[in-house]
Design a protein that fits this description.
single chain, 319 residues, alpha+beta, Arc Repressor Mutant, subunit A, 3 domains, two-stranded antiparallel sheet, Bro-N domain-containing protein
């Protein structure tokens, strides 16, 4: 409920036979924003009501179900009672509002099953008025004790049952949402642990490659350049040392070199698919191919045809 400011006229005494919040909750199945003017008229944002009732086009829903006298613009309603526009970006000056009767008309035009109990009660009220000339709410068992306090009425059975069903449903939805949130957090934690493990593995590989590079730098300084023995009895260390002298080795080229050199020395040729080398180095297939091309260009390796599945075959260049 929107309270008038201290510069606005105080509202006259007004008492709803049924609490308007409970009444609207039973009708729409949701707690809808409300603006209550000093004369006791309740106004509701049409977009809120249409959303809860399943109307996809609020403008069309108003034209189809709500006459003009039951809909208004927020600025007109507040201006007519010297009220200020409620705070918040959702309370725009041109916001379309409907009164309580307009809300009931939208509920009657709604096909959602949750609206059925309220619509049945409305039909019962109309039928009773037609038959008996009036419809009277039962007085509540407990009445206010303050002098002059208005009579308290019991909530109609259909309205009370609708509220109970809605609260039960909402509790179930809240429980399901809480379970989904817990499961989502668990998945997020697992993904975070996997990312940390992957990062640790990548760092370990980088450190290992750095240590190998440092050892080879020392070996290159301490040992003479490869002689004819390289052609006859190459080792992984001698091959890598020779390659480092032939070209300017980047980290990507060195990663590929460290993977293929042992294979070329031990097996005499390299028949591994490019995607296998890419998986071991963490590089893309395209980048692996570029590194192999650079090694060929500097006479480190040369091609010897291909395998049956189309993978290239490489051998050491011993010249």
């Amino acid at each position: 409920m929107i309270e008038p400011s201290k510069h606005q006229p105080a509202p006259r005494a007004q008492h709803d036979a049924i609490d308007v919040s409970d009444f609207v909750y039973a009708a729409t199945g949701a707690r809808v924003r409300r603006l209550t003017t000093p004369d006791g008229t309740h106004w509701f944002p049409a977009v809120d009501v249409c959303k809860e009732l399943g109307y996809t086009t609020p403008r069309k829903a108003l034209l189809d179900h709500v006459p003009e006298e039951h809909r208004e613009i927020l600025e007109t309603v507040t201006g007519g009672h010297c009220l200020s526009i409620p705070a918040g970006r959702e309370w725009r000056r041109d916001l379309r509002l409907i009164d309580l009767q307009g809300l009931i008309l939208l509920v009657n035009g709604c096909t959602k099953p949750t609206c059925a109990p309220f619509k049945q009660w409305v039909a019962e009220v109309i039928e009773t008025v037609q038959r008996e000339g009036s419809y009277t709410l039962e007085e509540a068992e407990v009445q206010p004790t303050d002098p002059g306090a208005p009579i308290a009425y019991a909530m109609p059975e259909q309205v009370a049952e609708a509220i109970v069903r809605l609260e039960t449903h909402n509790l179930q939805v809240d429980e399901e949402l809480a379970v989904a949130q817990r499961e989502s957090l668990a998945v997020q934690r697992e993904m975070l642990e996997m990312q940390r493990a992957t990062l640790a593995t990548q760092q370990a590989i980088a450190h290992a490659m750095e240590r190998i590079a440092n050892r080879l730098d020392v070996m290159t300084l301490d040992r003479p350049a490869p002689t004819a023995d390289f052609s006859a009895h190459p080792t992984t260390e001698s091959v890598l040392a020779d390659w480092r002298q032939r070209l300017s080795v980047t980290s990507d080229v060195w990663a590929v070199a460290v993977v293929i050199a042992p294979v070329l020395v031990e097996q005499g040729e390299l028949r591994q698919p490019l995607d296998s080398i890419a998986a071991r180095t963490g590089l893309s297939v395209h980048r692996v191919n570029e590194c192999l091309r650079l090694l060929r260009k500097h006479a480190c390796i040369h091609s010897r045809g291909g395998t049956e599945d189309g993978s290239p075959v490489y051998v050491l260049n011993r010249s």
